[in-house]
Amino acid sequence: MATLELQGLSKRYPDGTLALEGLDLAVGEGELLVLVGPSGCGKSTLLRLVAGLEVPTAGRIRIGGRDVTGLPPQARDVAMVFQNYALYPHLSVAGNLEFPLRMRRVPRRERRRRVAEVAALLGLEALLGRRPAELSGGQRQRVAMGRALVRRPALLLLDEPLSNLDARLRVQLRAELAALQRRMGVTTVHVTHDQAEAMTMGHRVAVLRAGRLEQLGPPEALYREPATAFVAAFLGSPGMNLLPGRLHREGRGWALEVAGARWSGEEGPPPAPEGAVAVGVRPEHLHLARGGPGSPAGLTLTVAAVERLGHEILLHALAPGEAPAQAWGEAVRGAWPPTVALRLPARERTPAPGDRVAVRPAGPLHLFDPLGGRRLAMVDATV
Amino acid sequence: MGRRPGASEPFSEEARAGRWLTAPALAGLLLFALLPFLGAVALSLTDLRLGSPRPPAFVGLEQYQRLLEDPAFLAALGNNLLFALGVVPVQTGLALLLALGLNRRFPGQMALRTLLFLPVVFPMALVAVMWTVLYAPGPGGAVNAFLEAVTFGLWEPRDFLRDPAWALPAVMLTSVWQGVGFQMVVLLAGLQAIPRELYEAARVDGAGPWRQFLHVTLPGLRNPLLFVVLVTAILAFRVFDQIQIMTQGGPGQATTTLMYEAVRAAFVRQQLAQGAAISVVLFLLVLGLTLLQRRLLRQRQVLA
Questions:
Q1: Mean pLDDT taken over chain B
Q2: Is the dihedral of CA A225, A229, A235, A236 positive or negative?
């Protein structure tokens, strides 16, 4: 158990790709940090750098205060669970669990004890004699976890450990894994592209985009107050809606216009510089307006698809107006969902695809810089 | 495991097509392998000699009994065993080293791979003639000249192929040179089939290069290695071309082999029955090796 500190960590591959750029990050003792981002964001590179499987182009890596930047993996006291588990196919489950101990010349008696202990912890006792090929996906995942934990490493690295499992098992193991980490208290970096894993498992979540840290914080904070349009759209299922808007002064206050609808602020200066903004609103903060299409505080949208999930209904409407591709910067455009999603209670009478509906926000509206994607302000549209 | 169609339903469409498709090959095997072999077995139970006016008589296992007392046969068998014991490990070890070396990226890697594989494409007759020239006696021979150069003149030139102590090793070296490329390619393919993550897992688990080789590479190469070892062993027992061209079994009986003895018995001494008996013995040896390989490979399948 130890802390992990990354300082100005950069990685440029020989082909010129910049996978990580000047990343600073600190993981506390016993913390479970989830690194999340779309594929190619550099999260796996980061993990491989920490493991020592790759050498950084610049920056330092410290584990438990010790600089390990130049050390090979075997000298770092880290353990890793690979996406495909990388179990040794010719060794039995017991052989796999024992392997890291053998490599570190732990005496046989101690090895036996530790293997039995970790097998009991993960419910693998009945499988000790089997080979990896004779195990199910979930069992292999557990063996891989066991092999990583048996050595009681200073740092546990998880590289998309659940992504090869089917959805049901993934949800189950997600909870098991988080509980196991809490029980062992081992400092953990968990890499995933699944925002649900990030939200449910992480003590803190680091969102990565294009080799840079987009935002770092507790999952609820990231969800509630995303620092950028990218984080806003990435977290949540579906993510935050982004709509092209315009902010300007009006009388002694200000007004926000989004696709024909407008909200006026009270007295005082506008919450952000006047001009174009990207307006973010969570699907659960949009409601169908009673008045029907045409009411001034509502957006008029065309329903594209309706998903009934049993406990709720997801309504996808076509985004109003033109795609804001030209006006928005790349950072925002990349995050821009082409539809507007609404999360509705299941009992609500639902429109059918093709219907025109009036949609009214009830909750915070986030205003993002349409070029850089930074969040400028949050306004309450409940009024 | 689902049942494969055709494997369990002998009259399915697929099975019928399969039988048609394999028929030519099976007919060929029957005609050119099984029938001659049965003929050889039958012949080996007689005393047939070429050009003898006597009609052949059935003598039972007498030919085999005679073989066991025949010093020429025993010498050939001994040479064959020596040949196999020398060539198989040296060639496999060398092939493994080459494969490991060529599995890394470096400039000229493809060129080197091609060069090392080239001898495999050469006919053995050509290789044998070439090496006979290289082994030429006296300081003019390339091998002698090379050894003299690297030992700063300490090496005394000798006539490799006519020296009882050197003839067999010289032929073995030629065979290794010719065959190592094939083994290397098989092992290289095996190496490339080992997932990179296994090495990474081993590194994180604390294994250095040697223990990665021991615990990831070698187990991963088990099947290719088995294949390579047994195929080489079989080829080693069937060795004939290079003997015929380079030494004719000499000097004395220093380089005779089973195949060479069989050919000599049948076509030089005209003892057709004895030649047949030798080839039956050779066949049984090769069959034994093949069965061993199948057994070991199947065992692996059950495990994997």
A1: 84
A2: positive
Sign of CA dihedral B188, B193, B196, B199: negative
Confidence of residue A219 (pLDDT cuts 50, 70, 90): very high
Residue A233 near residue A336, CB atoms below 8 Å: yes
Model confidence at A55: pLDDT above 50 = yes
Q: pLDDT grade, residue A87 (50/70/90)?
A: very high
Dist. CA B118–CA B135, nearest whole Å: 20
Q: Which residue type, as a one-letter code, is found at position B145?
A: A
Question: Does residue B142 have a pLDDT over 60?
Answer: yes
> Domain locations in chain B?
1-44, 60-303
The residue behind tokens 């840290």 is A213
Please give the CATH architecture assigned to the domain spanning B60-303.
Orthogonal Bundle (1.10)
Q: Please tell me if residue A147 touches chain B, with a CB cutoff of 8 Å.
A: yes
As a whole number, mean pLDDT of residues B152-156 equals 77
Q: How far apart are CA A196 and CA A221, in angstroms?
A: 15
The amino acid at A193: H
Residue A100: list chain B partners with CB under 8 A.
205-206
Cβ contact, residue pair B219, A89, below 8 Å: yes
Q: Is A82 in contact with B215 (Cβ distance < 8 A)?
A: no
pLDDT digits (tens, 9 = 90+) for A190-214: 999 988 889 998 899 999 988 899 9
How far is it, in rounded angstroms, from Cα A238 to Cα A41?
Answer: 20
* Peptide linkage before A337 cis (omega within 30 of 0): no
What ipTM was predicted for this assembly?
0.82
User: Percentage of residues in chain A with pLDDT exceeding 70?
Assistant: 93
Shortest alpha-carbon distance between residue B89 and chain A (Å): 23
Q: Are residues A99 and B219, on separate chains, in Cβ contact within 8 Å?
A: no
Domains, chain A: 4-226 (3.40.50.300), 231-380 (2.40.50.140)
Q: What is the pLDDT of residue A294?
A: 54
What burial class does residue B33 get, using C-beta atoms within 10 Å of its C-beta: 0-12 exposed, 13-18 middle, 19+ buried? exposed
* Cross-chain residue pair B219–A88, CB shorter than 8 Å: yes
Number of residues that make up chain A? 383
For residues B131-148, average pLDDT: 81
CA distance B81 to A361: 88
Tell me what percent of the residues of chain B surpass a pLDDT of 90.
Answer: 20
Residues of B whose CB is below 8 A from A14: none
Q: Which residues of B touch A87 (CB under 8 A)?
A: 201
Instruction: Tell me the average pLDDT across B79-104.
Output: 90
Q: How high is the pLDDT of residue B3?
A: 46
Q: Which residues of A touch B304 (CB under 8 A)?
A: 89, 131, 133
